[in-house]
Automatic annotation (TrEMBL):
Residues 170-235 form the HTH luxR-type domain. InterPro entries: Sig_transdc_resp-reg_C-effctor, TF_LuxR_autoind-bd_dom, TF_LuxR_autoind-bd_dom_sf, Tscrpt_reg_LuxR_C, WH-like_DNA-bd_sf. One of its GO terms (biological process) is regulation of DNA-templated transcription. This is HTH-type quorum sensing-dependent transcriptional regulator VjbR. Keywords: DNA-binding, Transcription, Transcription regulation. Gene3D superfamilies: Transcription factor LuxR-like, autoinducer-binding domain, Winged helix-like DNA-binding domain superfamily/Winged helix DNA-binding domain. The keyword Transmembrane helix does not apply. One of its GO terms (molecular function) is DNA binding. It holds the Pfam family GerE. PANTHER family: DNA-BINDING TRANSCRIPTIONAL ACTIVATOR DEVR_DOSR.
């Protein structure tokens, strides 16, 4: 699993998508670059409607919807209670229903390992970005350690672009920050230095300062740390 890749190029590819098909094509490239089995973006709204993109087999996607598995899926239930990325092995799979669901998933080509990133909006919006694979626990732990930061960035970009194509799902208050301001604040929240943020976004540090100050002003924050905390609390960025 995993390989060296140009992070800035993938983020640029995501930024330049204009249709869900193009977004799906980038997801496939991310999957292939990471050498994992599947990538999934999954939205479940308050009414139970499901939306997203998956490289899972069509038979499993259809079965998942038909059986309303989102109501019993330990990944959905577990991630809904958390704000941080979740390794599937940390979830509770001990119940009879969960075990039956897991076996059905494995029988349909879903890998035995997963890493899901919850994405929340300010009005209760909830989505997941998931990487799925078949391998040993040791290999999966090593993969997560190596790529967790990049996966969070992919989740952020993927969610933002997907919502651009589904305007009725976009939280109104999330428009307070521009896409570039959100990108900058997300990277800073992840612990990137200003120089690293500027490099990742292919901008100068002067331009980065403009984005940061603009975001700070919009959020009514006293400083950058306060701005990051405010953006996190409002669900404008995910880390």
């Amino acid at each position: 699993m995993g390989t060296q890749f140009d992070l800035s190029q993938i983020l640029e590819d995501l930024e330049n998508t204009s249709t869900l098909d193009e977004l799906g094509a980038v997801a496939v490239r991310i999957r292939d670059k990471l050498k994992v089995d599947h990538i999934v973006y999954h939205w479940v709204d308050g009414a139970g409607d499901q939306y997203g993109y998956t490289t899972y087999p069509d038979a499993w996607a259809d079965r998942y919807r038909e059986r309303n598995y989102h109501r019993i899926d330990p990944v959905i239930l577990g991630c809904f209670q958390r704000f941080h990325p979740v390794n599937w092995k940390s979830l509770n799979w001990s119940g009879k229903v969960a075990k039956a669901f897991l076996q059905d998933a494995l029988d349909h080509g879903v890998g035995n390992q997963g890493y899901s990133i919850p994405i929340r909006g300010p009005n209760g919006q909830f989505a997941l970005f998931t990487v799925n694979h078949s391998c040993s626990d040791e290999a999966w732990e090593a993969f997560i350690v190596t790529y967790s930061r990049e996966l969070i960035l992919f989740a952020h970009y993927f969610n933002r672009k997907a919502l651009d194509f589904e305007q009725d799902r976009r939280p109104e208050s999330a428009r307070g920050l521009s896409p570039r301001e959100i990108d900058a604040m997300t990277l800073l929240a992840l612990g990137y230095s200003r120089a690293q943020v500027a490099h990742s976004l292919s901008i100068s540090e002067h331009t980065l300062r403009v984005y940061i100050e603009s975001a700070r002003s919009k959020l009514g924050a006293l400083n950058t740390t306060h701005a990051i905390a405010t953006a996190l609390s409002r669900g404008l960025i995910v880390v």
